[in-house]
Write a structure and sequence with these properties.
Order of helices and strands: HHHHHHHHHH
Mean pLDDT: 95
Number of strands: 0
Oligomer: single chain
Helix content: over 70%
Low-confidence stretches: none
Largest sheet: none
Number of domains: 1
Distance between the termini: 61 Å
Radius of gyration: 21 Å
Number of helices: 10
CATH class: Mainly Alpha
Strand content: under 5%
Keywords: Membrane, Transmembrane, Transmembrane helix
Shape: globular
Bound molecules: protoporphyrin IX containing FE
């Protein structure tokens, strides 16, 4: 049987697919950076309990619920853009993962509660603090693993035949060698960005000790991630890997710049410059997200090309979207400024 027969028919979209590709990559960067902070922040809090550096854990506990909320909010936009262009792949992989995928909703709610209880009952929890945070972190790690499974399973229509072998039971993409370094790449990045979050806050509060702690997490995790990134690259199917090794100028250039960015991040870690590190992190993550998009396009090339999607030419919806984006963004900036004003952060340490 030809895997192409398993791919649903595409629906026309209002404007050319590449518009949505750009929005998908940009909003994905926002989602993944917040995800990095909440997962990395939870790990650093946990280690804080083990090392008896409670004030750092306490301070992080106050931020984690909000950051998880932002992670979820920032996840909605790429989810919509992903479904708009790649729905016939992503919906299929979601259905094939069935229960595993639906369980993400319940686990997300439970993790949200976990972070709230950790924050609001920080003192009252006593010895239960560590197990609660460990459980909550475990749920977040599992959710991330489900996302990696879904977005890799969607790239392998030939794997979808497993549905007939499992007798209709949901399955994951566990036999894909790319899955593990890919997932690890995101999680190690979380340790780095979580550390950067700690360092940035310490920088503005002029807390040299905490700044050092944060930048150490940032730098060490980035060095480790350079190695994980190489593993990820090597695990890709040969012809896709070669695109990044001279086979395609854009792919090679983007990855080379990304690696250069990562090396610059290590340098900002060594010289303890959190603000510069934050700017370079956004740029590097954006480059890596473009590289990830090139990987997706290459995987799907035998089946699909987003620029060939049928369009209805209704540009009015794009204009409306851009209008609300232009009006909405300044409002968001204004709200964030109110939120971070020291006077509005009650009892923050
Ligand atoms: C604790 C919560 C979450 C964690 C840890 C998490 C983690 C991740 C990770 C690791 C990826 C990258 C997967 C890969 O490329 O291999 C990812 C992708 C994604 N996440 Fe999240 N996520 C969380 C919540 C959410 C939520 C609630 C949404 C939607 C409302 C969401 C939407 C997305 C989308 C759409 C992608 C894929 C975008 C693309 O492939 O272009 N995430 N997430």
């Amino acid at each position: 049987m030809d895997p192409a027969q398993l791919i649903p028919v595409v629906d026309p979209i209002p404007i050319p697919g590449p518009w949505f590709d750009v929005l998908l990559v940009v909003t994905f960067v926002a989602h993944i950076l917040f995800m990095n902070v909440v997962v990395g922040g939870a790990v650093i809090s946990l280690v804080g309990h083990a090392r008896n550096t409670e004030p750092l854990s306490r301070s992080l506990s106050k931020k984690l619920p909000t950051i998880l909320a932002l992670t979820i909010n920032m996840g909605v936009a790429p989810l919509l853009f992903l479904q708009t262009v790649y729905g016939q792949f992503d919906y299929t992989s979601s259905v094939l993962m069935a229960g595993y995928w639906l369980a993400v909703i319940g686990l997300l709610l439970a993790a949200y509660y976990g972070l709230y209880i950790y924050n609001l009952k920080f003192d009252g929890l006593g010895g239960l603090r560590t197990p609660l945070l460990l459980l909550t972190l475990g749920m977040m790690l599992w959710i991330g693993f489900m996302f990696s499974n879904n977005v890799t399973l969607m790239l392998r229509p030939e794997k979808w035949f497993d549905y007939f072998k499992t007798g209709g039971a949901g399955f994951l993409n566990l036999d894909d060698p790319v899955l593990y370094p890919r997932y690890l790449h995101f999680m190690v990045a979380s340790l780095a960005v979580g550390g950067l979050f700690v360092a940035l806050r310490a920088h503005f509060k002029k807390d040299a000790e905490r700044l050092k702690t944060g930048m150490l997490w940032f730098m060490r995790a980035t060095v480790v991630n350079l190695a994980v990134g190489v593993w990820f690259l090597m695990a890709l199917p040969g012809e896709i890997m070669m695109l990044f090794m001279g086979g395609d100028a854009l792919a090679t250039g983007v990855l080379a710049l990304g690696i250069l960015g990562a090396a610059a991040l290590v340098w900002t870690g060594l010289t303890r410059r959190p603000v510069l590190a934050a700017v370079l992190t956004v740029v590097t993550v954006l480059l890596m997200a473009v590289a990830r998009h090139i990987v997706r396009t290459a995987y799907l090339a035998p089946w699909f090309d987003s620029s060939q999607l049928p369009i209805t030419g209704e540009y009015s919806t794009l204009l409306l979207f851009l209008f609300f984006l232009a009006v909405g963004l300044p409002c968001v900036v204004w709200m964030v400024r109110i939120y971070v004003k020291p006077a509005n952060i009650e009892g923050d340490a």
